[in-house]
Design goal:
Helix content: 25-40%
Radius of gyration: 33 Å
Low-confidence stretches: 2-12, 32-36, 78-84
Mean pLDDT: 79
Strand content: 25-35%
Number of domains: 3
Order of helices and strands: HHHHHEEEEEEEEEEEEEHEHEEHEE
Distance between the termini: 120 Å
CATH class of the largest domain: Mainly Beta
Structural class: alpha+beta
């Protein structure tokens, strides 16, 4: 074959690629019938449409898309694979190269995304709320978590394809983003909490004698990870229910929540209905992180009925002082309540 002929054929192949690109991506009518086989062009467009379809699917749920792709690959070969296997298609050299490039792009992108998702699901973040701070964070799925003081949460950079798992130490309020395909699981000491979408409070400080879960909305499953056969190892909680895991005995109990202030650490809204002064002070210390001393134990039996919506601790103590005719003194970082001498 002469050099001129080889160069002419190479120029023809180059011209074909230019016409193919203009026809497929710019929707331009090429009109050069001598250089372009329209049947070949139709096959090439079909291959390119496979890539378009793949990236269109990426706009939707990755998990669902991945499962559909695997299911279709098992059930029947895709159009792309049939092109290579069918005797009806005799691909010319440039079209064969195009098909291989398209297939490599699709498979390479799928493999890369799968490896990347696995790597991100193993990368763990930790957020800590310090001694005098309350933090609110948003997790990768849109779930919002409020952390009480001295609380830490661990969660992955990206949740796995079939579940959302976190672990906490301390107290937190969860507003879980609904997703019926990916349950939300919290590990708190020996307790495991599982939900699909709801709001609830978890109290699981490491030094505490129990783990408590109080449900505000939705439905929550609480499990004991170390329960024996003789003990209850799972509870279903509805709004208003409280689940308690006793750490020493591993007993799992379900009761009705009678504490209107279980979320006051977050809202600073307090309700007292003939509540003993001892319990009132315990709530104030927890919510405002202060130290309050009662000089006479007899004062602890005083009963208070009042409601405070986001008032300062100084204001609340002034109300208590006035209501019971007490003295209120501040000294050495403490509030001191005592009877008049």
């Amino acid at each position: 074959m002469s050099y001129r002929r080889m160069k002419a054929e190479k120029d023809i192949e180059t011209r074909k690629w230019e016409l193919a690109a203009r026809s497929i991506f710019d929707n331009e009518l090429v009109g050069d019938e001598d250089l372009m086989d329209m049947q070949e062009m139709g096959k090439l467009k079909e291959l390119v449409s496979q890539v378009d379809l793949y990236f269109e699917l990426k706009k939707h749920s990755e998990q669902k898309g991945w499962e559909n792709v695997k299911r279709q690959m098992i059930k029947t070969p895709s159009k792309t694979f049939r092109i290579f296997n069918s005797e009806k298609f005799a691909l010319k050299p440039f079209l064969k190269v195009a098909a291989m490039v398209v297939l490599a792009i699709v498979l390479g992108t799928v493999v890369y995304q799968y490896i990347r998702d696995n790597a991100l699901s193993r990368q763990i973040n930790e957020v800590i709320a310090g001694a005098n701070a309350i933090k609110t964070i948003e997790l990768p799925d849109g779930t919002v978590v409020s952390l009480n003081t001295n609380t830490r949460i661990n969660y992955p950079e990206r949740f796995s394809r079939d579940k959302r798992e976190v672990s906490i130490q301390g107290e937190a309020f969860f507003e879980v983003k609904p997703n019926k395909h990916k349950p939300f699981i919290i590990h708190a000491g020996n307790a495991q909490i599982k939900v699909l979408g709801t709001s609830f409070n978890v109290n699981a400080y490491p030094e505490a004698e129990k783990v408590e879960v109080i449900v505000e909305t939705g439905k929550v499953q609480v499990s004991n990870k170390v329960a024996t056969i003789a003990k209850t190892n799972e509870l279903i909680l509805d709004p208003g229910d409280k689940g308690t895991l006793i750490c020493a005995s591993n007993d799992l109990l379900k009761t009705t929540n009678n504490d209107p202030n279980f979320l006051a650490w977050k809202t600073h809204n307090l309700i007292f209905r003939e509540t003993s002064l001892k319990e009132v002070i315990a709530n104030l210390e927890k919510v405002y992180k202060v130290d309050i001393v009662v000089s006479d134990d007899k004062l602890n039996n005083l009963l208070l009925s009042a409601q405070f919506n986001n008032y300062s601790v100084d204001f609340i103590l002034k109300v208590i002082q006035t209501t019971f005719n007490l003295e209120l003194v501040q000294a050495n970082g403490q509030y001191i309540l005592k009877a008049h001498s």
